[in-house]
Amino acid sequence: MERSSARGASGGRKWAVELCDSAPSSSIRDVPDPLGYSRTSLELEESAPGKAKKEIDANFKQAKAWETAQAPFKNLFMIGFMMWMAGLGLGLWKLNSLGLLPTHASDWVSTLAPPTNVEFSGGGVPLS
Amino acid sequence: MNLQVLQQTALGVLILCSIWICCDALYEDQVGVWDWHQQYIGKVKHAVFQTQGSGRKRVIVGTEEDAIASLNLRTGEVYWRRVLGEGDSVNALDIINGKYVISLSKDGSNVRAWHLPDGALVWESLLLPSMGSVASLLVLPVDINNDRMNDMLIFSGSMLYALSCHDGGIIWKADLQALREDLVIKKVSLSSDGTLFGVGFSDVSGLVIVEIDLRFGHIRKINPVGISKALDTKELMLVNGVAVALDAAFTTVVTALIKTGGDVKIVETLLSDLVSAEVKSAQILSTTLEGAVAFQVNGKVVVVKVDSATGQLDVLEVFESSVVLSNSLNVVESKHATAIVEPTEDGGSIGKFSLRVVYANSWSVDAAKDSVSLESHRGLIRKVFLNAYLRTDRSYGFRALVVGEDDSLSLLQQGEVVWTREDGLASIIDTWTSELPLERDRHPVSEVEHDLADWLRGHWLKLKATLFLASAEELAAVQALRLHSSDKTKMARDHNGFRKLLIVLTKAGKVIALHTGDGRIVWSVLLPSLRAESGISKVPLKLMPWQVPHQHALDENPVVLVVGRSKGISDSTGILSWVDVYKGKELRSSKLNFPVKLMIPLPFTDTSEQRLHLFIDDKQKAHVFPATEESLSLFLKHKANVVYHIVDKEKGTIVGYTIKNMVDGITEGETDGHVFHTEPIWSVIFPSETEVISTVVTRRPDEAVHTQSKILGSRDVLYKYLNKNMIFVATVTPKAAQHIGSATPEEAGLVAYLIDTVTGRVLHRVSHPFMQGPVHAVFNENWVVYHYFNLKMYRYEMSVIEIYDQNRMGDKGVLQLMLGRHNASSPVSSYSIPSIEVKTQTYFFTFSVKAMTVTSTARGITGKHILVGTVNDQVLALDKRFFDPRRTVSPSQAEREEGIIPLTDAIPIFPQSYITHVHQVEGLRGILTVPARLESTSLVFTYGLDLFFTRTAPSRTYDSLTEDFSYALLLITIVALIIGIVVTWILSERKELGEKWK
């Protein structure tokens, strides 16, 4: 499952057959290594020893460290996105429970002007 | 147990919290910033000077408003003032030994001594009241009871008392009525040989002379003197042992020479011989002159000399009726001076008078003569009191205290007005407020610059004060700036609507405009049409807005209408007078052909914004004013819907009338208006044996209502029943209509009614047994709060009635409301059957009440305070939330959120809620509330003997910054912040650049 999605992502295709076998590195990662074959050891052996090897090591470590450092943020971003998606409904529910949505008659009548009287009446106690 | 305590504490805290919000007390330095208080004393009727000795010179006055006051003779300021209770009117005043002021009041039944310097009550003596006669006070030159203080004599009618001036104790009393039932003593005099004479009338048959022993009060002798003619018993003068009276037919002057021993010689002189003319009317004036008597004959004042040896009469001088004479003043041993004030040739209309002082023994020679000019709005001079002082050259100078036609008091000396007090303001009849003119012309640059500099300086000082950097002088300057800011006294409309003109109508028929900023008099006019004319006096009745220009506010002035009435014997027709509010001039006046019984401002105005008025006469005809064609067609359009009612307190009825057709055959015009027939359509008759109308109140016609609904904590809606044509009537049992104590609880009862005045339908009736009046009530929006006395609990109570409409939009859902499918704001007719729900509640209240009203704001959004004029002459603001019939002992959560205060048995009174703070409005009679343009604020004008103006914000000033908000501080903060931002930005830019170069 994971693999197919990775593959899809890399090529945008469902399946592919590579007929020419010239460049080993391109397709190698997609298929599992044959039994007893260790690519890393081969690569390590192939690359120059000493200084270069150390550099690669440091790079790898840094990348890993970055990954670890960024992980919570990535997570947070994900959560944020999720919440944004869910937020609308949640917010509405929350607003409603707080009574901020105009769903009652009382929310609509408070601005209505008071009715006027058709008749006019005056008077009172006569002046002495 | 513990839980209960906890609950109680919680309740207490809750009450405190809720109360906290509604108390808006004043800080000490806010006193006088927007309120003002003025003291008046009323129209002066008695005055005694105290100018001898080393103390401060003063004059003690007694007034028609039942006040006794000591005034500074140099400035007219009040040193002290004491207001006697209602009905305790002053009869006489005198000063004894330069130490006590003696006042006689309430028809001679109350005698009090006041300490002259500070007005403290020294003693009080209550005598038996003697019915219906003028009481007098005579300070004797002798000491009867040997307490080293001269004593005095009080007499009223048939009772004669000798009182000790030392402590007010009665030395002796003589009841002359016990000797002769019909005896009325008018004057008492002490003859040179120490015998006391009382002279009076016995019925109409003749004079009676009573000889009394001064030391013990024994009546030595009663000497009835038979006179051939019946006498006029209104007045009798005693001049140097000669009694002077008029006969009942006003033809003869009867003089009686009294001598010790008993023989009385009667001399009769024909009045027509004296004045050498036919006599139509005559009376003796009460002015006491030395050796002379003043008569009013045929409208002229005749001063007649009385020869004490022969009783012969001799005319000294004849004056026009506008003359005023002072009582004779003993200057030195044998010299008695009298002041004569007359308007000069061109009449009193321009306020020019001549003031002459003559000595009794040389009447034709003027001892002093000055011509004085008073302001024209003072009218004629009504009374004069004379005082003499010794000049440096040992001759005598005179000063005169004069009371104007407008009830003002002025001191005249050497032809100049030294000071004037506008004491007519103590008797305000009616008030109205007007907007000031719009600010038309821009100010010149220099003025603006000056203003700006002042403004900056003021704010700089304020800022220093805020930051506690100001010195004491600067703090004083800040306070002075606040008290006398030019902004508050400007003669133009302000944005917040705090500056207005208070137009007041006084009892003397004077209209005065006061500025609300500082209470100064902007203009005053004594209405010419309300001045007495050929002996017929006129009374002002009411002041109402006639024209309030809105569209033409720039080029038209508001006009007020003053309604008055003639006070003739047969003539009581109405008088209308129109006054320009900005110019203070009477524009025109009209003498109506009918007496005005009722005047009703109609809710329509014509194209020139003149309000239509309906005047009802004594024959139930309705007169429409202004008498123009336009107003007639406007009125005819609305005629069918106009109804009026008349409350007859004597008969106990309220009758509603409708307007019918026009009356034929009356020429319409300024004196009649358009005349219509009317017809009674309904009546409410209260059973006279059980109910007497006590109070009728209506809603204010100009009341602003913001909303028709009341939303509860549970989001339910109550609809207010906002019928404008509704009155509240309170009736009491006839016995309970009198003062408290006149009825037992079982005999007393109060019934409150709500009546629709279009149909006469009684909407609600509630009966309170054991209660009694007086009832004070205030009716606002859909509620009534009323105040009365509970005879059973012996406490005052206040009740509230709230009226809600039950069948209004009962089944309307949210959707229909959202879509506007409702008729909530469509006009309502009183003829449709109402279905109302009434909620009531009652609370105890501490005070008795003199006046009650409610705050009013521009749009009616702000909460309401009920303003109560207390018995202490202060104004107490009570939050309407305390008068909420939905209060319960323990409100639910929702109700608490709504702001409902837990129910208590009494309305709490907090010292902070007195809006008059340190002042008292003596003799408080009325409270007027006017909305400012700022919604949160209501202006309050309280009047009585004193005037007090302030503004109040029932829900605090939520819509404006406080007066002492420091704009300078705000500006400086903003500038500092901007500078800070710029500086940091530059710094960061530099740093970034430096980083990049690294």
UniProtKB/TrEMBL annotation, chain A:
Pfam families: EMC4 (PF06417). The keyword Transmembrane helix applies. GO terms for cellular component: endoplasmic reticulum membrane. The keyword Transmembrane applies. It is found in: Endoplasmic reticulum membrane. Keywords: Endoplasmic reticulum, Membrane, Transmembrane, Transmembrane helix. It is a multi-pass membrane protein. This is ER membrane protein complex subunit 4. The lineage of its organism: Eukaryota, Viridiplantae, Streptophyta, Embryophyta, Marchantiophyta. Belongs to the EMC4 family. Its main location: endoplasmic reticulum. The chain crosses the membrane at residues 76-93.
From TrEMBL, chain B:
GO terms for cellular component: EMC complex. Residues 25-423 form the EMC1 first beta-propeller domain. InterPro entries: Beta-prop_EMC1_1st, EMC1, EMC1_C, Quinoprotein_ADH-like_sf, WD40/YVTN_repeat-like_dom_sf. Keywords: Endoplasmic reticulum, Glycoprotein, Membrane, Signal, Transmembrane, Transmembrane helix. The keyword Glycoprotein applies. It is a single-pass type I membrane protein. Residues 781-997 form the ER membrane protein complex subunit 1 C-terminal domain. This is ER membrane protein complex subunit 1. It comes from Marchantia polymorpha subsp. ruderalis. It comes from the Eukaryota. Its main location: endoplasmic reticulum. SUPFAM superfamilies: Quinoprotein alcohol dehydrogenase-like (SSF50998). GO terms for biological process: protein folding in endoplasmic reticulum. Residues 1-25 form the signal peptide. Belongs to the EMC1 family. Component of the ER membrane protein complex (EMC). Pfam families: Beta-prop_EMC1_N (PF25293), EMC1_C (PF07774). The chain crosses the membrane at residues 965-988. It is found in: Endoplasmic reticulum membrane.
